[in-house]
């Protein structure tokens, strides 16, 4: 068994005002490395870039909504490193700090933009392939990986982005909608017609379409059933090795 080191981006919870650090879920894969040292170097670089690119006011830490012990730790850190404390954290110019200091601040503040996960290189990554478009399903420019070979987007992993992710997926399906008569689309046109219920999948203008707004986002099994009846499936779920996935 060979271990790979995967850097996943984290998604913070949102309370309609700012992002909170006490709810964090791993999301898309950013990088894959063969050894821990390279992964830790890349993790630090990504974290530093993320903090320099963000406004602290977008997070609980920048709005006085973190635990007091965190602010005490930040004060102790900045006093030791720079001989001063910051009443308003927005006054900090991270571009003037060293990478080491920026990274240390992120760790103290609980701004864990990424995490390193160890995986067995035999582990498979399941991705969605659009047959009529010859491309993988991407979200925010990154290929989306599933937990298994089913059309099952993990709500816990995508958190509050879940509904947007599903909506984007369904809209993409409509862009690559299969066209033709039911007989041309399926070897079982009668069964296919029975599954076109007008609520999830509709048949209009000689093509299959998805009613995006009418979908119960947690129920995608009916779509999988329709897809399985098509001569050329709308989409495929492909199992890729970790190295194959890293090249996407």
Tell me what the structure shows.
This protein is an alpha+beta fold and 248 residues long. It has two domains: 3-118, no CATH class; 124-246, no CATH class. The chain contains nine helices and eleven strands. Strands 4, 5, 8 and 11 form a four-stranded antiparallel beta sheet that branches. The longest helix is centred in the N-terminal third of the chain and has 18 residues, at 36-53. The radius of gyration is 23 Å and the shape is elongated. It starts with a strand and ends with a helix.
Note the main attributes of this structure.
four-stranded antiparallel sheet, 25% strand, 35% helix, 248 residues, alpha+beta, 11 strands
Question: What's the helix and strand layout?
Answer:
Blueprint: E1 3-14, E2 19-33, H1 36-53, H2 68-82, H3 99-109, E3 114-120, E4 125-130, E5 135-136, E6 138-139, E7 142-143, E8 145-146, H4 155-158, H5 162-175, H6 182-185, H7 189-195, E9 201-204, E10 207-210, H8 221-228, E11 235-240, H9 242-246
Antiparallel strand pairs: 1-2, 1-3, 4-5, 4-8, 4-11, 6-7, 9-10
Helix pairs in contact: 1-3, 2-3
């Amino acid at each position: 068994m060979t271990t790979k080191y995967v850097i996943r981006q984290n998604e913070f919870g949102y309370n309609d005002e700012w992002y909170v650090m006490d709810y964090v879920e791993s999301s898309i894969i950013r990088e894959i490395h063969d050894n821990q040292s390279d992964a830790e170097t890349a993790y630090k670089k990504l974290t530093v870039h993320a903090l320099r690119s963000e406004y602290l006011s977008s997070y609980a830490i920048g709005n006085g909504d973190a635990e007091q012990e965190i602010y005490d730790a930040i004060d102790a850190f900045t006093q030791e490193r720079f001989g001063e404390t910051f009443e308003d954290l927005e006054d900090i110019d991270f571009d003037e700090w060293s990478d080491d200091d920026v990274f240390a601040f992120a760790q103290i503040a609980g701004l864990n933009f990424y995490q390193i996960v160890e995986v067995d290189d035999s582990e498979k990554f399941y991705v969605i392939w659009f047959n009529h478009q010859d491309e993988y399903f991407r979200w925010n420019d990154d290929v989306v990986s599933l937990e298994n070979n089913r059309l099952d987007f993990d709500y816990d992993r995508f958190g509050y982005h879940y509904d947007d992710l599903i909506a984007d997926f369904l809209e993409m399906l409509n862009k690559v909608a299969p066209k033709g008569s039911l007989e041309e689309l399926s070897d079982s046109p009668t069964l296919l017609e029975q599954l076109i219920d007008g609520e999830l999948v509709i048949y209009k203008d000689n093509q299959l379409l998805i009613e995006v707004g009418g979908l119960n986002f947690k129920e995608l099994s009916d779509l999988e059933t329709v897809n399985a009846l098509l001569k050329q499936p709308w989409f495929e779920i492909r199992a890729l090795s970790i190295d194959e996935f890293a090249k996407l």
